[in-house]
From TrEMBL:
<feature type="binding site">
    <location>
        <begin position="331"/>
        <end position="335"/>
    </location>
    <ligand>
        <name>ATP</name>
    </ligand>
</feature>
<dbReference type="GO" id="GO:0008776">
    <property type="term" value="F:acetate kinase activity"/>
</dbReference>
<dbReference type="GO" id="GO:0006083">
    <property type="term" value="P:acetate metabolic process"/>
</dbReference>
<feature type="binding site">
    <location>
        <position position="384"/>
    </location>
    <ligand>
        <name>Mg(2+)</name>
    </ligand>
</feature>
<comment type="subunit">
    <text>Homodimer.</text>
</comment>
<keyword id="KW-0963">Cytoplasm</keyword>
<dbReference type="Pfam" id="PF00871">
    <property type="entry name" value="Acetate_kinase"/>
</dbReference>
<protein>
    <recommendedName>
        <fullName>Acetate kinase</fullName>
        <ecNumber>2.7.2.1</ecNumber>
    </recommendedName>
</protein>
<feature type="site" description="Transition state stabilizer">
    <location>
        <position position="241"/>
    </location>
</feature>
<dbReference type="InterPro" id="IPR043129">
    <property type="entry name" value="ATPase_NBD"/>
</dbReference>
<feature type="binding site">
    <location>
        <begin position="208"/>
        <end position="212"/>
    </location>
    <ligand>
        <name>ATP</name>
    </ligand>
</feature>
<comment type="function">
    <text>Catalyzes the formation of acetyl phosphate from acetate and ATP. Can also catalyze the reverse reaction.</text>
</comment>
<dbReference type="InterPro" id="IPR023865">
    <property type="entry name" value="Aliphatic_acid_kinase_CS"/>
</dbReference>
<keyword id="KW-0418">Kinase</keyword>
<dbReference type="InterPro" id="IPR000890">
    <property type="entry name" value="Aliphatic_acid_kin_short-chain"/>
</dbReference>
<dbReference type="GO" id="GO:0005524">
    <property type="term" value="F:ATP binding"/>
</dbReference>
<feature type="binding site">
    <location>
        <position position="91"/>
    </location>
    <ligand>
        <name>substrate</name>
    </ligand>
</feature>
Length: 396
């Protein structure tokens, strides 16, 4: 059974074709600059050379036609015909309260997805465009929607309700939704497998640390709290996002800097975080290098980021009454030896002991805690595409 996984952005489209019998990637690729001059697709079939397809791509339907042609191409394709694609799994950023799990897409689901657009105006429209294009090109192939928010629908209401007038939740759905759910779900399940334990017996804190970053408390296999909120802006200081801050700062800055709502939203989402503090970059590799070369603001940015991670780990330990495993994943979590070390430093009194030698790994699964550590520390590379494919297989 072959599953095609689609992840649509506003001007990009990532895809993987996965053989679910062996959970093996047959082909994958990235389409960039959709609707912009210079659009292209990087396509790679396992065991073959990567090819670059440079053609005008005015919309997602054009891109998907090129992707499907590439998959069946006699020279650089992975399958002989479209009939070999059993189903398509689509990543959808926001499912609101309508979806607590992945769903098979039908007209009713499409209507609900469009109703969620106002909750994720930047992300959901391209996700919907990808689904509509696939339905047009592959009308007889089952489609499944897998939501970033679904995993967090198990949070108790005391953890997702904001201390605002309750009518705002009832009228507009203003509450914590959380994101990166597919990643948190995958790495928590994988952690239980690595530790050879039943996930229902574990308390796990998953740290998805990338340019966008979030932390999740997973108790008995379910999300009970997470750091991102109504939007992905809440929580940790990130690459360009501010994360948690006093909301009174917003009207203060708007008045002092004479900013519009759109401008202050842009400031908080695209000019803040470690970029705003360091003045160097939103890329943690650049910031780490600058800090090592004596840049004090770069060092401060790293300290702020690490302190926020520690705060959430501590809060979630208290929330769950302890923790069995702390997991690092995503670009920074998987690859930054230094940040993992900074996060775990000083936590020895909580039975969290990092092994400096074991920690010298990048991008691969490992238990990096000392043998004596009661709390296990792991690095688990995330695999959202495989998680989407698994849900799609189950439903389709």
């Amino acid at each position: 059974m072959n599953i095609l996984v689609i992840n649509c952005g506003s001007s990009s489209l990532k895809y993987q074709l996965i053989d679910m019998n062996e959970e093996k990637v047959l082909a994958k690729g990235l389409a960039e600059r959709i609707g912009i001059e210079g659009s292209r697709i990087k396509h790679k079939t396992t065991g073959k050379e990567e090819v670059i397809i440079e053609k005008p791509m005015s919309n997602h339907k054009v891109v998907l036609e090129l992707v499907l042609n590439a998959l069946v191409d006699p020279e650089h394709g992975a399958i002989k015909s479209m009939d070999e694609i059993s189903a398509v799994g689509h990543r959808v950023v926001h499912g609101g309260e309508k979806f607590a799990s992945s769903v098979k897409i039908d007209d009713k689901v499409m209507k609900a997805l469009n109703e969620c657009v106002e909750l994720a105006p930047l992300h959901n429209p391209p996700n919907i465009m990808g689904i509509e294009a696939c339905k047009e090109l592959m009308p007889n192939t089952p489609m499944v929607g897998v939501f970033d928010t679904a995993f967090h629908q198990t949070m108790p209401n005391s953890n997702y309700i904001y201390p605002l007038p309750y009518e705002l939740y009832e009228k507009y759905g203003i509450r914590k939704y959380g994101f990166h759910g597919t990643s948190h779900k995958y790495v928590s399940k994988r952690t239980a497998e690595i530790l050879k334990k039943d996930i229902k017996d574990l308390k796990i804190i998953t740290c998805h640390l990338g340019n966008g970053a979030s932390i999740c408390a997973v108790q008995n296999g379910q999300s009970v709290d997470t750091s991102m909120g109504f939007t992905p802006l809440e929580g940790l200081a990130m690459g360009t996002r501010s994360g948690d801050m006093d909301p009174a700062i917003i009207p203060f800055v708007m008045e002092k800097e004479k900013l519009s709502l759109e401008e202050v939203n842009n400031l908080l989402n695209k000019k803040s975080g470690v970029l705003g503090i360091s003045g160097v970059s939103s890329d943690f590799r650049d910031i780490e290098e600058a800090a090592q070369n004596g840049n004090k603001r770069a060092k401060l940015a790293l300290d702020v980021f690490v302190n926020r991670v520690k705060k959430y780990i501590g809060a979630y330990m208290m929330l769950m009454g302890g923790v069995d495993a702390i997991v690092f994943t995503a670009g920074i979590g998987e690859n930054s030896v230094e940040i993992r070390e900074m996060v775990c430093s000083g936590l020895e009194g909580l039975n969290i002991e990092l092994d400096a030698e074991k920690n010298k790994i990048r991008g691969k699964e490992a238990i990096v805690s000392k043998d004596s550590s009661k709390v296990k520390i792991l690095v688990v590379p995330t695999n959202e595409e495989l998680m989407i494919a698994r849900d799609t297989k189950e439903l389709a």
